[in-house]
Amino acid sequence: MTLYGDNDPPADDRPTVQVTAVQWPVEELEPASLQRDGKRPRRTRILIAAGIATAVLASVAGVGAFAYAGDVPRGTTVLGTELGGRSQADATRELRAALERQASELNAPLPVRVGERTAELVPAEVGLQVDVDATVTAAMQTQAHVVDRLVGSRTVRPVVTVDEERLDAALKEVLGDQGRKMTMPGITWDGLTPKAIHPQPSLGLDPEASTQAVREGWLSNGPVTIPLAETHAMTTAEEVDRMVAELAKPAVAAPVTLTTDKGSLSIPPKAIAKSLRFTADKAGTLAAEVDVKQLRTALGGDLAKVEVTPKNARMTLSGGKPKIIASSDGKELDTATLGEELLAVLPQPDNRRVTGTLKPTKPELTTEKLAGLGIKEKVSTFTTRFSGGLSSPRSQNIITAAKAVDHTLVLPGETFSLNKHTGERNYAKGYQDAPVILNGKLVPGVGGGVSQFTTTLFNATYYAGLEDVEHKPHSYYFSRYPSVIESTIFYPNLDFKFRNNTKYGVLIDTSYTSSTITVSIWSTKIWDRVKTEYSPRRNITKPKTVYLEPGPTCIAARGSDGFSQDAYRVFHKDGKVVKREKFSWRYAAEPRFICGPEPESS
């Protein structure tokens, strides 16, 4: 064993022994019989002293070597296994072997208590295990005096790891409904009366504390108690009450005057209550703000006193050609800072005034944008005929729907929905009762006849080559419509939709006579021609006769055959067919409805 002085570093990581020099009393070490003339020769004295010192040093070095042998201090145990005096590699192997011997004990279910409930966790299912390498490293780092290393003993706790996410999920299942969510602080409105919502703390698991408790309690005897933690909102009940008294109640005590360069308007307490919001963040900090969108809604038409609504460009047809009606800019209240300025004056009992700024606003569709949409020519047109003249309820329903759609602009990429465009077709909008198909028979229904307009519009978009998104042919075939390529409609379940799948704008033009309804599509022509090719009718079925009870709700019908058929939309470009689309439908045989009793058989 090599000894080093204080300033000489060892050549490897083995422990060193520092020796303090000792002055030996030579006189006491020399017997008189060995002296000559009463004195021992100096050289002899030096040799004897050197020999004794060497023996002492050898003894000390031997003790130190024994005490510091191995990487793990002697007397060190982990889970009852002696690792002391071993190298790191040997200690690692020994600890792994010990864990294998104790596998059944270590994998035994771990009893836990969460609140008032107990359960058992399977260690493997939550990732509980001993980290062998980390445990051996911890054992190696144990500090001890040389004497302690010779005769002492120490126990090192194993380093335990766990899958925190799986453990938290398992403990939440045990917690069940014992926990509670935090009641966030808030203030709501009952008319003009503010209502305080006082916070209540949440009760639940603290994942960090749960992990610590399980890691420490896994290898101990007895169940592990999982701590539950309460989390309190940052805003207290007292602070909520103060916000009610100092802000909410004064806010609706009187109107606020909004002044602009175009005049003034009064913001009434009712509009203030609808727009003053009290919300809490995740930490339960309650804050107030004015929702300017809600404020605009609450003020409604009063904003017209100070604002100018922008107008979109529109397109009409004049002299058989598209004509643009120019757009116009508007002026709108700038709400960027209005909410904060209004919030600042709401607690005040008087001088409740704010200044609003009007900013220029562009319409969604400007004259320039509309002019660039390429609406320049009639792309397609389709006409269907109806009977009864313009005075019949069915005819009136067709014309009412046509007027609602006339001059509708569909921008590139937009999808047009007839139900969305007209909304519910009811008496208030001018629709009348006329026959509709319901549950397989004709019955009076508001808006009857609109299916004819739907079919006319569908065919106009069909022959314009626009994308079919949604349509449904009738259950029965009516000769006034082209077979297969026709569409019924019923609000809100059955709709007709098409998408403008071109880069040009699409203008829908509707017109009518006393016996016809026509829909034309204006845009830029893409296809040379779009036509329909039919397959033969197949699977033909004959109608049966049904006798109905006479009365105002009974509508007779002559009946029609049922059949299946395919229709192909064929696209022509540059003198050749470039695309074909298949449409198929199966018509049921429409019964022959007779309003009267079935005749008695002879």
**Gross geometry:** extended
- Give the termini separation: 133 Å
Structural class: alpha+beta
Query: Biggest sheet, strands in spatial order?
Result: 22-30-29-23
Treating each run of at least 4 consecutive H or I residues as one helix, how many helices?
Answer: 16
Question: For the report, how would you describe the main beta sheet?
Answer: 4 strands, antiparallel
Unreliable residue stretches: 1-38, 41-50, 52-65, 144-148
Calculate Rg over CA atoms. Answer: 47 Å
The counted number of beta strands is: 36
Round the mean pLDDT to the nearest integer and report it.
Answer: 87
What portion of the residues fall into strands of 2 or more residues? 25-35%
**Helix coverage percent:** 25-40%
Transmembrane segments: 46-69
Pfam families: PG_binding_4 (PF12229), VanW (PF04294)
Domain YoaR-like putative peptidoglycan binding: 236-354
Keywords: Membrane, Transmembrane, Transmembrane helix
Describe the protein in words.
InterPro entries: Glycopeptide_resist_protein, Vancomycin_resist_VanW, YoaR-like_PG-bd. This is Vancomycin resistance protein YoaR. Keywords: Membrane, Transmembrane, Transmembrane helix. Helix 10 runs antiparallel to helix 11. Helices cover 27% and strands 29% of the residues. The strands form 14 sheets. A 4-stranded antiparallel β-sheet has the order 22-30-29-23. Strands 31, 32, 34 and 35 form a 4-stranded antiparallel β-sheet that branches. A 3-stranded mixed β-sheet has the order 2-1-6, covered by helices on one side. It is built from 16 helices and 36 strands. The chain has 602 residues and is α+β, with helices and mostly antiparallel strands. A hairpin with a 5-residue loop joins strand 15 and strand 16. Among the domains are: 42 residues, no CATH class; 134 residues, Roll (Ubiquitin-like (UB roll)); 223 residues, no CATH class.
